[in-house]
């Protein structure tokens, strides 16, 4: 959820064998209740800026390539409240339900390629993705899960809060340590705003999120 702005962010060895319609690897760190904490860099030409971000997974259905959750942006300078909360839905790139080509949200195949190639873990897959969007890749043994997260609505503020949810995130999730890296895409926002998150023990033991109700 970057700031709204006026119209005018070494490759690892990842297997990519050919086999259709495989599910991503099961991962205990990508499950309902899991929480993540980190930062989003929202720097622009005018200034450097980043804020704290918390994410919690509210739903996950690997079979259908779906997950959803909430995102909290803390201490956003222009907001009337110290925490801005959004609800997001995600698409898991599994070559069955979704491919690496977005096909909506004003993202062209070239936009997709520019953002996915920001992730070193994606680079071994690039040649096949250029051919068919990765439809023929077997991602079942890939140590990373690639996703798109699209914020759907603000939970605790109105649309005049100074932030935008018009764009979406390209996301790479590490199954080994639960870390998340992402890049926000919105033609009307600063490019390549980076999201960096680490898994926490919240939901399993201790980190506390704010209280709010999903409508």
List the helices and strands and how they pair.
Layout (H helix, E strand, L loop, with lengths): L16 E2 L16 E7 L8 E12 L4 E9 L8 E10 L16 H8 L9 H7 L4 E2 L5 E11 L13 E7 L5 E6 L7 E7 L16
The biggest beta sheet reads: 8 strands, antiparallel, barrel
Low-confidence stretches: 4-20, 204-215
Output the radius of gyration.
Answer: 17 Å
Strand arrangement in the largest pleated sheet: 2-3-4-5-7-8-9-10
| String of helices and strands | EEEEEHHEEEEE
Shape descriptor reads: globular
Oligomeric composition of the shown chains: single chain
Write down the domain tally.
1
Instruction: Tell me the strand percentage band.
Output: 25-35%
Account of the 3D structure:
The chain is mainly beta. The protein is built from two helices and ten strands, in the order βββββααβββββ. The longest helix has 8 residues, at 109-116. It starts with 16 loop residues before the first strand and ends in a 16-residue tail after the last strand.
Quick summary:
Helix content is 7%, strand content 34%. The protein is built from 2 helices and 10 strands.
What are the main properties of this structure?
215 residues; mainly beta; eight-stranded antiparallel barrel; two-stranded antiparallel sheet; 2 helices; 7% helix; disordered C terminus; Glucose-induced degradation protein 4 homolog isoform X1; GID4/10-like
């Amino acid at each position: 959820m970057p700031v709204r702005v006026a119209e005018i962010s070494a490759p690892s060895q990842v297997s990519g064998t050919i086999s259709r319609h495989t599910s991503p690897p099961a991962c205990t760190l990508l499950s309902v209740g899991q929480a993540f904490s980190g930062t989003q860099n929202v720097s622009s030409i005018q200034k450097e800026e980043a804020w704290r971000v918390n994410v919690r997974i509210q739903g996950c259905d690997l079979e259908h390539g779906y997950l959803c959750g909430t995102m909290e942006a803390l201490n956003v300078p222009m907001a009337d409240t110290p925490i801005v909360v959004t609800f997001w839905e995600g698409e898991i790139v599994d070559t069955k339900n979704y491919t690496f080509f977005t096909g909506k949200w004003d993202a062209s195949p070239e936009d997709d390629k520019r953002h996915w190639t920001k992730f070193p873990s994606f680079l071994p897959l690039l040649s096949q993705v250029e051919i068919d969007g990765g439809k023929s890749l077997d991602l079942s043994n890939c140590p990373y899960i690639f996703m798109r997260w699209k914020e759907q609505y603000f939970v605790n503020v109105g649309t005049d809060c100074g932030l935008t949810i018009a764009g979406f995130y390209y996301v790479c999730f590490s199954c080994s340590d639960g870390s998340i890296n992402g890049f926000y895409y919105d033609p009307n926002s600063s490019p390549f705003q980076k999201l960096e998150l680490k898994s926490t023990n919240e939901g399993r033991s201790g980190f506390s999120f704010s209280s709010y109700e999903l409508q």
